[in-house]
Design goal:
811 residues; two-stranded antiparallel ribbon
């Protein structure tokens, strides 16, 4: 599979990268594998690698939502007398006996026997229900959706929205851009959420049954309330012989062509944990409110940084680049796609204007930062609900494909892709400066949340690419530019080798090679830094060149969708890597210049100036990235996207709130899923957590149950080691990526092409596309060291991919 740079493309749990660790449902904490016995004589010593041993003993892949549905959906024994039960043809790949050994072998999780909030449970007995129950519930859901629309229309009528240029406006309009298609689809999702709540009340479903088994109540496929136009459309017949990936991710799985496609729901690694079992935000174990996400941020997450011992700032940038390729959660929007205000005085004084998708973050009056500005409310709207035509808990919508397929460069629709292409010689659109430098196309949309008049007046615009977040921070914009240049470089070389190829062939072949290079660099240079070499070896994630070497076979039964927990929580570990200062290094004089990160958010204009891109890349490759953990730069804990404002947003608070919004399960559930014993009190965590972090946690949480961990680790010499609860969704994602993506190289490409792809490196891509740099570390994600020297770009020690392997015709 991907070991031959082939089956790379999918992310099962998949993604955020750019930046952090404040785990979305409660907190991020610095995890340690053990505290030495002499530091605490009451704690028995444990092996330093105990968590690794435990994880490696678990069966992979782990059971998930799709496993549960597949086990019981076809079962003849679950509800044998249910007249409403769907009928299926016999399928040997989906055994009908849910109690067969293929389903019941122990997965080594540690859920107690009386704990049924996990996928190993048996479905609950459904109470009797009638067609009237279904139709009345759907009617109620439709009424609630219309009421929401009325609020949106009234807000639009009064011109109430987020203040243009404000931090929240930049976050929602520019960074978390929501496609109009997603907003339309969310109407059905919202309606079905309320219909499920009504059905739960009508037939007295328990919270657990509503979460797990309400999906089997009723058949709504023919209901007028189920608007098929609001569902993700199925593609036409898939061409099994196609040489190239679809741009929207469809037909990656020929049996289930929409799996992993853009505009499909995230999947669940663990069952969702909503307050009412359907859609309300997660509550504390005793049913009360969880502590303010901002209070958790200021109490648990410190505003100081500890540098990684091995990795550069480029690690953070590459992580964000990968994340944006595989996840983009849609946000709830108002009329005409307007942002929804939740904290303005007019909204707070008139409850009738309060949008039901508001979930603002309450700021304590004595907040150490915001109190000076009299701020007690931080804007936050819920993620848009994914559409469905069945009862069940709320799910969220991923606007990206679930595959590592370069959608960050090419977009996720044929229309978007067409707008990015030059339609000549296989090239992407670009703008060329007077001195011949190739930049991304200009975004001339005045409402893109980035362009400002004092720059557009001089014909300097923000940029456009396959992903709307391209301008979020300048280092990310640089990476977009580098890979757009790389595509054009590949297309021109292929044209020289194959002058008879037309524009379409040149474009698609260049795109295929570029996707393979991104995948190879990710698994060869980035992933080892995340999960460590031991786990890489155990899961066989390292790229392999020879066809006879062991690899993961494609498995059409594994759902490629990104796990909700990975996107909403685990992959946000990179946020703790954000540097408060961005460094630029002038190559010739080695002059170093620093600027606050805030000055480069939605401010990419300096890329128009000669030499700045090279200076930024040099600056990324020189300093160490902050170590992953529970410590964050003040630039992201109150000043994010502030621009000219005196204050901005708190990214840590927002990530905690997002996890609650998505119903990401609590810390104890992840311990049990990972094979660890459940903790009954905070003292049980002394072996697993940094003492300072644990002490802070006890100050804001009443008990251990509601608190969600996920956070990283204690950095160790060779890599960035993570806690067990982070590794689980991350490793599952990375493994799933290998097992679910049909990439054409494996079956259609000659071995010499595969061998050339395996010469790809980030160092060579940067050298070829930012030649002003002159030199670079052999492995740019790692700090300069004896084994990682800085080499001239002309060095033969930085191999080049020979595209001669793609030449056709007589030699």
């Amino acid at each position: 599979m991907i070991h031959q740079v082939s089956h790379w493309g999918n992310h099962d749990s998949s993604s955020q990268v750019a930046l952090l660790v404040a785990l979305a449902t409660g907190l991020s904490v610095l995890i340690r594998d053990g505290i030495r016995a002499n530091e605490d004589p009451q704690v028995d010593p444990v092996p330093d690698n105990q968590s690794l041993i435990t994880l490696m003993s678990l069966p992979w892949p782990r059971r998930d939502q799709e496993w549960y549905v597949r086990r019981w959906e076809r079962s003849r024994t679950m509800t044998p007398d249910d007249p409403h039960k769907r009928q299926f043809e016999d399928d040997p790949e989906n055994p009908d006996d849910p109690d067969g050994p293929e389903w019941t072998t122990h997965d080594r999780s540690t859920f107690p026997d009386n704990d049924t909030w996990n996928w190993n449970r048996r479905p609950s007995d459904l109470p009797d229900w009638t067609g009237d129950d279904v139709s009345e519930s759907l009617s109620y859901g439709s009424m609630e959706e219309k009421e929401k629309t009325k609020v949106e229309e009234e807000l639009a009528k009064r011109n109430l929205s987020l203040v243009r240029g404000s931090p929240s406006y930049k976050h929602q309009q520019a960074f978390r851009k929501t496609d109009p298609q997603a907003t339309k689809m969310a109407k059905l999702g919202y309606m079905m959420g309320h219909a499920t709540t009504k059905m739960k009340d009508r037939i007295n479903l328990t919270r657990e049954t509503a979460t797990f088994d309400s999906q089997w109540v009723g058949d709504m496929s023919a209901s007028p309330y189920c608007d098929k136009g609001l569902l993700r459309p199925h593609p036409g017949p898939c061409n099994s012989l196609s040489r190239y990936r679809s741009v929207d991710g469809t037909c990656n799985n020929l049996k289930n062509p929409t799996w992993g496609a853009s505009f499909t729901p995230f999947r669940r690694a663990l069952p969702p944990d909503y307050g009412d079992g359907v859609s309300s935000v997660r509550r504390a174990a005793d049913g009360g409110d969880l502590p303010s996400a901002r209070l958790v941020s200021t109490t648990v997450h410190l505003n100081k940084l500890a540098d990684s011992r091995s990795y550069t700032v480029l690690t953070m940038t590459w992580g964000q680049f990968v994340d944006h390729d595989i996840t983009l959660t849609a946000l709830s929007k108002g009329s005409g796609g307007r942002s929804i205000p939740c904290c303005s005085e007019e909204i707070l004084l008139q409850p009738s204007l309060y949008h039901p998708e508001c979930n603002p973050i309450m700021i304590p009056k004595d907040d150490p930062f915001y109190a000076a500005f009299n701020q007690t409310c931080m804007e936050f709207t819920r993620s848009a609900p994914a559409p469905r035509c069945n009862f069940g808990p709320r799910e969220q919508l991923n606007q990206q494909t679930a595959f590592l397929d370069g959608s960050i460069i090419y977009g996720t629709s044929e229309k978007q892709l067409a707008s990015l292409r030059k339609h000549q010689d296989g090239l992407l659109q670009s703008q060329v400066t007077l001195d011949g430098r190739e930049l991304l196309p200009a975004s001339q949309d005045p409402d893109d949340g980035c362009n400002v008049e004092d720059q557009t007046h001089y014909d300097r615009f923000c940029f456009t690419s396959g992903d709307s977040r391209v301008n979020e921070q300048i280092l990310l914009t640089v990476m977009h530019t580098v890979w757009a240049r790389q595509h054009n470089l590949l297309a021109l070389e292929l044209k020289d080798l194959n002058p008879d190829w037309d524009d379409e062939r040149l474009f698609q072949e260049a795109r295929k090679i570029l996707i393979a290079q991104i995948q190879h660099i990710t698994y060869n240079e980035y992933v080892p830094s995340i999960i460590g070499p031991n786990f890489m070896k155990h899961l066989k994630l390292s790229p392999q060149v020879e066809r006879d070497e062991p690899s993961h076979d494609y498995d059409e039964m594994i759902h490629p969708g990104i796990a909700n927990e990975f996107a909403a929580a685990a992959y946000r570990f990179g946020h703790s890597q954000i540097q408060g200062l961005i460094q630029k290094i002038d190559g010739p004089g080695m002059n170093i210049e620093f600027a606050q990160l805030n000055t480069f958010l939605f401010n990419p204009y300096s890329l128009y100036d000669p030499g700045n891109m090279a200076n930024l890349v040099r600056g990324e490759g020189a300093p160490a990235t902050p170590a992953f953990g529970y410590i964050f730069s003040p630039q992201v804990t109150g000043r994010l996207f502030r621009g000219d404002s005196p204050f901005g947003l708190d990214l840590v608070s927002m990530n905690i709130q997002r996890g609650r919004d998505h119903g990401v399960g609590g810390y104890n559930r992840w311990r049990m899923y990972c094979g660890l014993p459940p903790a009954s009190n905070f003292s049980d965590l002394a072996r697993d957590m940094d003492a300072g972090a644990l002490n802070s946690i006890t100050k804001v949480y009443r008990s251990i149950s509601p608190f969600c961990d996920y956070s990283p680790f204690d950095p160790s010499p060779g890599h960035l080691e993570f806690s067990m609860t982070f590794k689980m969704p991350s490793n599952r994602t990375l493994l799933n990526l290998l097992q679910t993506s049909v990439f054409p190289f494996l079956s259609q490409s000659p071995s010499e092409q595969l061998a050339e792809i395996h010469k790809s490196s980030l160092a060579r891509v940067l050298c070829d596309n930012v030649p002003e740099m002159g030199s670079i570390q052999r492995w740019p994600l790692r700090k300069y060291a004896t084994g990682n020297p800085r080499l001239p770009c002309s060095s033969m020690s930085i191999p080049r991919v020979d595209l001669g392997a793609w030449e056709e015709g007589d030699l």
